Amino acid sequence: MPTSTPKRRADAERNIETILRSTHELMAQGALPSMSEVASASGIGRVTLYSHFPSREVLLEEVLRRAIAHTDEVLTALALDEQPPPEALARLVRESWPILDRHRRVRTIALAEIGPEALRRQHDAAFQHVGRLIERGRATGDFRTDQPVDWLAAAFYAILHAAADEVDAGRLVSEDAPALLTTTLLSTLRP
């Protein structure tokens, strides 16, 4: 009897992971799937799906939250404070581009479903990494001081996301994006 609760929790966690992975894979194809499509792709019944995620919106928010939390973990692990700001920026772009590239269609769907303001709020933790890097670069004289840090961080993310949009549109090859982004961002941030 005592083993049923941990087993049930382990089953529930596996189901949640399967649902989220399947949802992300379906979204990577370019459209927000229906709950029926998620249940089918997950191999999980609709009752089980709805017991974990009562609506598509809740499911979408969890997919986003996890993607952004993963991004935050990766950015934190980079230890950007240990490199000169221009080198740290290049490393940040190199390491974060594959994550954005993997999630770019999820981002497009989220923009359509929850709107840019809600999506921006979800990114606050990731924005902090860029803001700190810009502040450090300003202190060392590597980055401009004539514009607010928040504006420069917003410009950073706008340029990063513009590259994702260009890849989606077929006007940019994903493998070329990190070098182009680094050059563009450094020219935007330099004094």
Give me the secondary-structure topology.
Blueprint lengths: L3 H24 L7 H8 L3 H7 L3 H22 L7 H30 L1 H7 L1 H17 L8 H21 L7 H13 L2
Helix pairs in contact: 1-2, 1-4, 4-5, 5-6, 5-7, 5-8, 5-9, 7-8, 8-9
Structural commentary:
The protein has 191 residues and is an all-alpha fold. It folds into two domains: 1-54, Arc Repressor Mutant, subunit A; 56-189, Tetracycline Repressor, domain 2 (Orthogonal Bundle). The protein contains nine helices and no strands. The chain has helices at residues 4-27, 35-42, 46-52, 56-77, 85-114, 116-122, 124-140, 149-169, 177-189. Helix 5 packs across helix 8 (149-169). The longest helix has 30 residues, at 85-114. The N and C termini lie far apart (67 Å).
Short description:
The protein is elongated, with a radius of gyration of 19 Å. Helix content is 78%, strand content 0%. The chain has helices at residues 4-27, 35-42, 46-52, 56-77, 85-114, 116-122, 124-140, 149-169, 177-189.
What's the total helix number?
9
Determine the strand fraction and express it as a percent band.
under 5%
Share of residues in helices: over 70%
Which spans have pLDDT < 50 for at least 5 consecutive residues? none
Broad CATH class of the largest domain: Mainly Alpha
The CATH H-level superfamily of the largest domain is Tetracycline Repressor, domain 2
Counting helices, strands and paired strands, the structural category is: mainly alpha
